[in-house]
Amino acid sequence: MKVAIHQPNYLPWAGYFKKMAMADVFVILDTVQFSKDSYTQRTKIRTKDGWLWLTIPVEKEFNFKPIKEVRLPGDCKWPKKHWTSIMANYSKSEFYDNSFIEGLYGGVYHTLQELNEAGIFYIKDKLGIKTRVIRASDLDLDTSLHSTDLIIDIVKKAGGDIYISGTGGDNYQDISKFEKANIAVEYARFQPVEYSQRWDGFEPYMSAIDLLFNTGKEGLKMIKTNNNAGEGA
Known about the structure:
The chain has one domain: 3-Layer(aba) Sandwich (Rossmann fold).
């Protein structure tokens, strides 16, 4: 069984869902430390002038805390700003879903993980990805493990024998340990394919809502048939 693992990113890019679509089980890695200015708290959206960061202003007290413990900031200005930015840039897109955006930014979420999972599951369902999703925090993991050893523990606890790695995994993973654990490694390679965005030109590496709001379920075909090397974020 194939297992993929990734942090619960904020409205992730299409490559995130490529990895998910390749797996039988996708594990949301909520037990590792939150990293400031990572994709766990920010994403890119397309604008008339190129692209824009949307960043959730996580408070400093949560730096290096487990992701599952990170609470959303009490300041109500950021959700309004993100909501307004998405509406301004996507409301005229063919597959724009105002009810989702309204629910995401007008809903009651207490933690970063809750909000991010709402976006992840929405995009997953709209793209028609059937992969089962579980959380690392539900797997009774050995908390003393790190890096490759942690990945192996997650894959085994999830019942897998094949690990779907991002293309940047070789920078920190010890392949020999996977071999000793009888776990095969496959790679989720993704290079954005151009599609029609709202404005002329093409900006790659946007949040997957850009792909979804502009192409609908056709976006799943672009994800599943894409086998090129790309970013690992």
